[in-house]
Design a protein that fits this description.
globular, single chain, 3 strands, three-stranded antiparallel β-sheet, 255 residues, disordered C terminus, mainly alpha
């Protein structure tokens, strides 16, 4: 009997797992450097899909903007890449033509022309995108239509200079787009050379600015077509002429 008990104890001891045979404790998984870089790139791509960095005023949501959001849009527009490139090109052309001759030539003259362009554009955005749009409940963003042929889409883009969208999604007169540049050019007379501070020159600059904004609207219209990653088709207007439903019986934009 003692022999049987001894044999059983020995067999049990042999079946018991040794400490070194036990599985290791789970270790927290750590991301490698390439994985971290890939995640950052993916996040950047997702942000670009939701909003245009080049044209921050291209609408990517259907809902209205709050007053705070309109102020933020004014700030974003004023330092957007499109604004920087436009001012840089305009300053170069102006220097080549020796416009604003009082600024002179060289880097000093170029810097003054560039700064003037940036300041006037910022004033335009402040009055148009923020102040007037907030006061009159206008939506200062550009709503791409994505429908119709080339002529229709260009015509729609040009019409956005005089027709805007209200916070309720209806068509209305674009007072922000028409008065904003005029107020900005009037304010510019406080820092432009003396020969520019006349009514004639003010309205001449105003006309040029309206023309530039009209042309830039055509580029905005086709920007999501060029960069399809914006994925704004869900909020694109489904009608052929208006960016939002118009109230029944309304044939003209409200003033």
């Amino acid at each position: 009997m003692a022999l049987l008990v001894s044999v059983a104890a020995t067999a049990a001891a042999q079946q018991e797992p040794k400490p070194q045979d036990l599985p290791d404790a789970p270790v927290a998984k750590q991301e490698t450097a390439p994985q971290k870089r890939q995640n950052r790139v993916q996040t950047t791509i997702e942000v670009l899909e939701r909003r245009s960095i080049f044209f921050p005023d291209i609408a990517t949501s259907a809902g209205p903007l709050s007053t705070k959001q309109k102020f933020e849009l004014f700030a974003d527009e004023s330092i957007a890449p499109s604004r920087l490139l436009s001012s840089a090109a305009g300053a170069g052309i102006g220097q080549a033509q020796n416009s604003l001759a009082a600024y002179g030539q060289g880097m000093g003259g170029y810097g003054k022309r560039f700064g003037t362009s940036m300041a006037t554009a910022a004033s335009t955005n402040f009055f148009g995108t923020f102040v007037i749009s907030s006061a009159l409940h206008r939506d200062p963003r550009y709503f791409v239509t994505l429908h119709g042929g080339f002529g229709h889409r260009v015509g729609y883009a040009l019409s956005r200079i005089v027709v805007a969208r209200t916070d309720e999604g209806k068509d209305a007169a674009n007072w922000a787009g028409m008065l904003g540049p005029l107020l900005a050019e009037s304010l510019a007379n406080s820092y432009l050379p003396v020969e520019e501070q006349t009514a004639g020159r003010t309205f001449q600059r105003y006309g040029i600015r309206i023309g530039l904004y009209t042309a830039s609207n055509a580029l905005r219209e086709y920007w999501p077509t060029i960069f399809r990653s914006l994925r704004i088709s869900k909020i694109a207007p489904r009608t052929k002429s208006n960016p939002a439903p118009t109230a029944p019986g309304a044939s003209r934009p409200s003033l």
